[in-house]
Write a structure and sequence with these properties.
heterodimer; A: alpha+beta; Butyryl-Coa Dehydrogenase, subunit A, domain 1; Butyryl-CoA Dehydrogenase, subunit A, domain 2; Butyryl-CoA Dehydrogenase, subunit A, domain 3; 3 domains; 11 helices; 52% helix; B: Butyryl-CoA Dehydrogenase, subunit A, domain 3; 13 helices
C-alpha cells in the first residue's frame, strides 16, 4: 500500500498545472469558449506533443502506460481551469473503447492517429428515453449486405461536431433496455444520412443531437463483437466517471480557493465576512467535502484497474456519489457565500458551479449511483 | 501509488488474526458483536495479552518500545482486530500520555512510566475537562501551588472516562494565574491513590457508567511528576489532542458497524441509507490513510485531523441511528440486563434490539467529546484556512 506519487507522476502534474495557469485564465477561457469549435486546435496539438493523448494507454497500444492514475492527474488540473478541449470524449471514452475492444486494424487507423492529435472522437449512447440507463438503446442497426445500416436518434453527444468518428451504441438484437444485443459501431462524422443539431451546453462545452437515417457502414465498423457491446461501453463509462470525478475535484479546489479569498476580502459590518463563525464553519465544510472527494477519486482511480468487474463498478459508483454530494455542497455554498456576485456571469465561481452541476448529471447522478452501488454491495 | 498488499503485509495480517483468535476471550468477543458493555477485565486481559506480544503500543516507534509499524501494518492491525471483535484499546495510556511522556518527558520519567503503559499493568485516565472548562479548555481552574518539591493540587476534573478503573491520571493544572490562559498551565501525572483524590460516577443517558467527576482536594504531587517545563503544559496538551483526534475517527469499528447493518437488513428503505454511510466510511478511511502517509514522511498529525474527527463521529452516530431505525418499535423495551450483565434471560424482541436505542443515545457523545464538532471547525478555520 503506497499513496505517494512517483517522480514521473509528479512531473505530469506539474506540466498540467503549468498549462492551466498559462492558457486557462478566466478571460482566456471565455475567449476559447466563444470560438467556432469551442476549443483550441493549438492546445490540442500541445496535448499531443506533451504525450497527454497517450496517457491511459499501454505501450503496446502506443501509449505511455500511466493508466487511470495518469488520467486522474491531468483531469484534476483540467478541472481547476475548466479546460474545454475534448479530452474525455476523445481519449477516455473513444480511445478507451478502441484500446479495449478494437481490432489491430482499428487501433492502427483510429487509436494511433488519435494519440498523434490527428483524430477526435465522440461517444453516442444516450437517447431521449434513456435517462441514466446505458442499456436503454433503440437506435437500430440492421444487416445490409456485408455491412450494417443505422437508423435512429442519439442525444447530448459531446464533441460530435468536432469528432472525426462517432462511436455509436446501437441495438442489433434483443428488446428495449436489454443489455445483450447492443453493438458498438465506429461511424464517420461526415457519413451520409447523419445529420446534427449542434448547441452549447450549460457549462460551455459543445454537444449535438444526432439523427441517423439509414447510415451505411461496413462490417469493419463494428467495434468488438456484435451483440456484446454493452460490457465494453459500461467499462469505458466507468472509467469516464472516474476521470470526471478527478475533474470535479479540481473544480472544487478552485471554487473553494475563490470563495476563501472572497470571504477574507469582502467587508460588511466593518469586518471581512470571513470573521463570522457561520461562514467559517460553512467554509470548513467545503474544505472537508473537497478532501473527501479527493479521497474517493483516488480510491476509484486505483480500483478502476482491478481485475474484478464488481470492484471496478463499485469504485466508480462510490466515487460518483461522493462527487455529486461534495460538488453540490461546494458549488451551492460558494455561490451563497459570494452573495449577489455568486449569481453573476462575471466571476469564475458561477462557471465552476455550472460545471459541477453538469458533472453530477453525467452518466448518472448521485442517487442513481447510490442505488447502483447499493445493489452491487448487497449482491456481494 | 498502489492499494495492493505486499506478501509480507498479508502474512502480517494473518499473524494478527491468529493472535486475536488465540488470545481474545470468547466472552469479550461476544460482547462486541452483541453490543454489550465491557467490564474492566475485558479490556485489561486483552490489552495485557497485546502487551506481552509487544503490540499494545502499536503506534509507537521502536525506540520507545513500540513495534515500529509502518502505515500499512498499522492499518491492518486496527482493521483485523476490529473484524475479530476485539475491544478498542483504551487510548489514555497508549495513545495519549505515552507519546507525551516519550516526546516531552525526562529519561527518568520514560523509564518509570512507559513500561506500565506498554504492558497495560497500569491504567490511565485523562484530567482535562472541568465544570467550567469544556470547549474553552484553556480556562481551566484546577490549581497547583508549589510547596518545596511538591505541588498541592486543588480543583475538579470531569467527564473523566474510566477514572473508576484508573491507577493514574494525567492532569492539566494552572500553575500561573497571572499569565494568559494558555501560558500558565502545567502537565502533571497524579497517582489516583494519593490522599485527597475522590471519584464520583456520572451515569449517562443510556444507564452506562463510563465517566466520572474527579475531585482533587489538597493532593500532594511530586514535582518529578510534571512533564515538560512549568507553565508549558499547553504544548503537551495540544500534541496529545492532535493524536487523540487521529484515532478517534474509529474507522475500523464503523466498517464493522456497516457490515452488521447489512447482515440484518433487507428493507429497501434502509439499504440505500446503509450504502450511503458505507461510502462515507470509505471516504473517511481513504482520507485517514492519506493523512497517515503524509505523517509517515515525517511530522506529527496536523490540524486536518480535526476534519477526520468531525466526519468519523458523525458516521458513528449515523450507524447507530440506522441500527435503531432497523429495529423499529422493539427498540423501546429497556433491558439493562442485556447490556451490562452476563445473563441467560431471553431478550424481548430480536437479539440485536436491546442495545440499539441505548447505543444511539450514547453515541451522541461522539460529536461532543475530544473537542466538539464546533471546536474542530474553529481549529480548521483558523489553522488551515487562515480565517
Amino acid at each position: 500500500m503506497d499513496l505517494s506519487l512517483s517522480d514521473e507522476q509528479k512531473q505530469l502534474q506539474e506540466s498540467a498545472d503549468r498549462f492551466v495557469r498559462d492558457k486557462y485564465t478566466f478571460e482566456n477561457r471565455r475567449k476559447i469558449a466563444a470560438t467556432d469549435k469551442g476549443w483550441l486546435p493549438e492546445n490540442w496539438a500541445q496535448f499531443a506533443e506533451l504525450g497527454w493523448l497517450a496517457i491511459p494507454f499501454s505501450e503496446e497500444d502506443g501509449g505511455i502506460g500511466f493508466g487511470a492514475l495518469g488520467t486522474m492527474i491531468v483531469m484534476e488540473q483540467f478541472g481547476k481551469g475548466l479546460v474545454l478541449e475534448p479530452f474525455l470524449p476523445t481519449v477516455v471514452l473513444g480511445g478507451g473503447m478502441i484500446a479495449s475492444a478494437g481490432s489491430a486494424a482499428q487501433k492502427e487507423s483510429l487509436l494511433a492517429p488519435m494519440i498523434e492529435g490527428k483524430k477526435q472522437f465522440a461517444f453516442a449512447w444516450l437517447e431521449r428515453q434513456s435517462r441514466y440507463n446505458l442499456a436503454d438503446v433503440s437506435l437500430k442497426a440492421t444487416k445490409e449486405g456485408n455491412g450494417w445500416s443505422l437508423s435512429g436518434h442519439k442525444g447530448v453527444v459531446y464533441n460530435a461536431a468536432s469528432a472525426d468518428n462517432i462511436i455509436v451504441l446501437a441495438r442489433t438484437s434483443g428488446g428495449a433496455r436489454e443489455e445483450k444485443g447492443l453493438t458498438l459501431f465506429v461511424v464517420d462524422g461526415k457519413a451520409k444520412g447523419l445529420t446534427r443539431r449542434d448547441y452549447p451546453t450549460q457549462d460551455a462545452l459543445r454537444a449535438s443531437e444526432l439523427t441517423f437515417d439509414k447510415v451505411s457502414v461496413g462490417a469493419d465498423a463494428v467495434l468488438g463483437t456484435v451483440d456484446a457491446g454493452f460490457g465494453v461501453a459500461e467499462d469505458a463509462v466507468d472509467r469516464a466517471i472516474v476521470a470526471l470525478c478527478a475533474e470535479a475535484t479540481g473544480c472544487m479546489d478552485a471554487i473553494n480557493a475563490a470563495t476563501l479569498e472572497y470571504i477574507k476580502t469582502r467587508k460588511q459590518f466593518g469586518v471581512p465576512i470571513g470573521k463570522f463563525q457561520v461562514l467559517q464553519h460553512r467554509m470548513v465544510d467545503c474544505f472537508t467535502n473537497a478532501q473527501e472527494a479527493r479521497s474517493m477519486t483516488l480510491m476509484a482511480s486505483l480500483k478502476i484497474e482491478d481485475k474484478d468487474a464488481v470492484v471496478r463498478r463499485k469504485a466508480a459508483s462510490g466515487a460518483k456519489v461522493q462527487i455529486g454530494k461534495s460538488g453540490k455542497f461546494c458549488g451551492q455554498s460558494a455561490v451563497q457565500m459570494h452573495g449577489g456576485m455568486g449569481v453573476t456571469d462575471e466571476l469564475s465561481v458561477s462557471h465552476y458551479f455550472k460545471r459541477l452541476t453538469m458533472i453530477d448529471l453525467m452518466f448518472g447522478n448521485q442517487q442513481h449511483h447510490l442505488t447502483r452501488y447499493s445493489n452491487l454491495a448487497m449482491a456481494a | 501509488m498502489d492499494l495492493a498488499l505486499k506478501p509480507e503485509h498479508k502474512a502480517f495480517a494473518d499473524e494478527v488474526r491468529a493472535f486475536a483468535r488465540e488470545n481474545l476471550s470468547p466472552a469479550t468477543r461476544e460482547k462486541t458483536f452483541s453490543g454489550k458493555h465491557y467490564d474492566r477485565d475485558d479490556h485489561v486481559v486483552w490489552q495485557q495479552a497485546l502487551g506481552r506480544k509487544g503490540w499494545l503500543p502499536y503506534t509507537w516507534p521502536k525506540k520507545y518500545g513500540g513495534p515500529g509499524f509502518d502505515v500499512t501494518q498499522r492499518f491492518l492491525f486496527e482493521n483485523v482486530l476490529a473484524e475479530e471483535g476485539a475491544p478498542r484499546i483504551i487510548p489514555f495510556g497508549v495513545k495519549m500520555v505515552g507519546p507525551v511522556i516519550y516526546t516531552f518527558g525526562t529519561d527518568e520519567q520514560k523509564e518509570r512510566f512507559l513500561p506500565g503503559i506498554r504492558s497495560s499493568d497500569v491504567s490511565w485516565c485523562q484530567g482535562y475537562s472541568e465544570p467550567g472548562a469544556g470547549s474553552d479548555l484553556a480556562s481551566l481552574r484546577t490549581r497547583a501551588v508549589l510547596d518545596g518539591d511538591h505541588y498541592i493540587v486543588n480543583g475538579q476534573k470531569t467527564w473523566t472516562s474510566y477514572a473508576h478503573w484508573g491507577d493514574w491520571i494525567f492532569c492539566l493544572v494552572r500553575t500561573d494565574s497571572e499569565a494568559k490562559p494558555q501560558e500558565g498551565i502545567s502537565f502533571l501525572l497524579i497517582d489516583m491513590k494519593t490522599p485527597g483524590v475522590t471519584v464520583r460516577p456520572i451515569i449517562m443517558l443510556d444507564g452506562a457508567h463510563a465517566v466520572n467527576d474527579v475531585f482533587l482536594d489538597n493532593v500532594k504531587v511530586p514535582v518529578a511528576n510534571r512533564i515538560g517545563k512549568e507553565n508549558e503544559g499547553w504544548t503537551c496538551a495540544k500534541f496529545l489532542l492532535a493524536n487523540e483526534r487521529l484515532g478517534i475517527a474509529e474507522v475500523p469499528a464503523s466498517k464493522r458497524g456497516v457490515r452488521s447493518l447489512r447482515e440484518l437488513n433487507d428493507d429497501p428503505s434502509l439499504i440505500e441509507k446503509i450504502a450511503d454511510v458505507d461510502l462515507q466510511v470509505q471516504a473517511l478511511e481513504m482520507s485517514e490513510l492519506r493523512a497517515l502517509s503524509t505523517m509517515a514522511l515525517g511530522g506529527a498529525p496536523g490540524p486536518e485531523v480535526s476534519t477526520l474527527k468531525v466526519r468519523g463521529s458523525e458516521i458513528q452516530q449515523r450507524i447507530a441511528e440506522l441500527a435503531m431505525e432497523a429495529v423499529g418499535e422493539y427498540a423501546a423495551p429497556y433491558q439493562p440486563g442485556m447490556l451490562f450483565q452476563d445473563t441467560n434471560e431471553t431478550p424481548v424482541g430480536p437479539d440485536h434490539a436491546p442495545p440499539a436505542a441505548p447505543r444511539y443515545f450514547n453515541m451522541r457523545k461522539t460529536t461532543i467529546y475530544g473537542g466538539s464538532t464546533e471546536v474542530q471547525k474553529n481549529i480548521v478555520s483558523k489553522a488551515i484556512l487562515g480565517l
